[in-house]
Request: fold
Amino acid sequence: MPLPENNTAWPPQQYAAQLADMRIDDAWYAGDKTKLRKVYSLQGYDNGNNERDGNGRPWRFWERPRPVGRRDNRLHVPLPADIAAKSAALLFAEAPTWTFENDTAQDRWAQIAEAGGLDSTLREAAEVSAALGGVALRATWNQDLAKRPLITAVHADGVLPDWQFGVMTGITLWREVARSGNTVLRHLERHEPGKILHALYEGTLINLGMRVPLTESPDTEGIAESLDADGPGDTITTGVQGLTCVYIPNMRPNRKFRGSMLGRSDWQHDGIRDLFMSLDETYTSWMRDIRLAKARLVIPSGFLTSQGPGKGASFDEDQELYSEINASPTSGEGLTLVQFAIRVAEHEQSWRSFSRKAVESAGYAAQSFGLGDSTAITATEVVSQERSSLLTSDQKGGYWLPGLGDLADVVLQLDKRLGFSSVAAERPQIELADSVSEDAQTKATTVELFSRAQAMSTEMKVRYVHPEWEDAAVKEETDRILKETGALVNDPAMTGAEGPGAPGFGEGGGEAD
Reply:
């Protein structure tokens, strides 16, 4: 799909239904009550009987119109946002490991990643991907801001990728840069192999409208200065192989739009959204119980003090003596206290049930959200209890790894092309960190078991306990341990060997325990 022609319907027809569905995902993720009311607004007509359409179906919780003349007391529980945040934490709570064959590429990538806050960008991208069904990572540049390529995340409701046989051949990023009434100014940025195209359109809410110069908006006028002087007037030649933007789906297949490659959000299924709605209704009911449970007094008119004609009457709660009444002490006449019970157990049980079912339907373990046993457990038990969360995270990681590899390769290409460095680009090996780190006791037990079985050398023990150490630190610690245990051979040719006749350090020699 090249840049669209003038007066094209927007969004394009093939994406319109999914982008509309994405607005529902976005409303739940944002937790904005106004957005929720809008996306679930009345689609049929009100027949005057508190029904949503002519088929007699009652309004669901967020479909009800906002009350007129009084406060909307509906509450929202931010469980969708918690699910998205948990998804990102499982993937990128710890930074992934990038391994390049060339040391210069390794060092340059570390500089780019650290200076640009790549780890934070990945966490943001992963959270938004869980909410909307996918995310794009774009490599761009601005030499006035930084002497390196810049990596930014673009949300799925602003991307239109093109695919052929499962391979992305191009992607269009779009955004609204201005809106005034029914007039909308949109910037489209299309990434194709070796080039980026830019265009600005002035149209309506549903029509792209006519192309106008990029200088018509302060948000895009700087781009106009970077366009190729001898090109068609909308192109920037990157000179790199591949696309300067990658798209990473959250999960596939998309069950509602089965032909789509955009991916699905963690709560795309209407059943999960209904659980969110029931959870909000439960919390609102709970809060209503609390409001109604405030103590109230039913007061005889004789206990009120008149404030004068037309000014009503008041009750002095500190007054101790009132006029006598002709009634027995046990008659119940006089002041009456009214206070309703708060159904705490019923509401909490419903809340837990809805929350648990929602997170499990989204692919996560209830324990990941504090809905399980709160007893202190080991890392091994965590892995066992949170197995479904870890499996979901592993599935998502399978979509991230190819995209991150493509991104690193094109960023280094762009880095050299723009003259920021002379490092040759290469595609790295990427390993995502474990979602659950082993505690010291678990590691010590594992090392002890392998030692008894004589199945692990001292070097491997040190590497297992301290995976973050460099080779020099591992060797130093290994030699220190062997020296203390008397197992280190003092022959200079055998430095680092373990036991008489063992091979050199790092070759997995045997050890006498």
Notes: The mean pLDDT is 84.
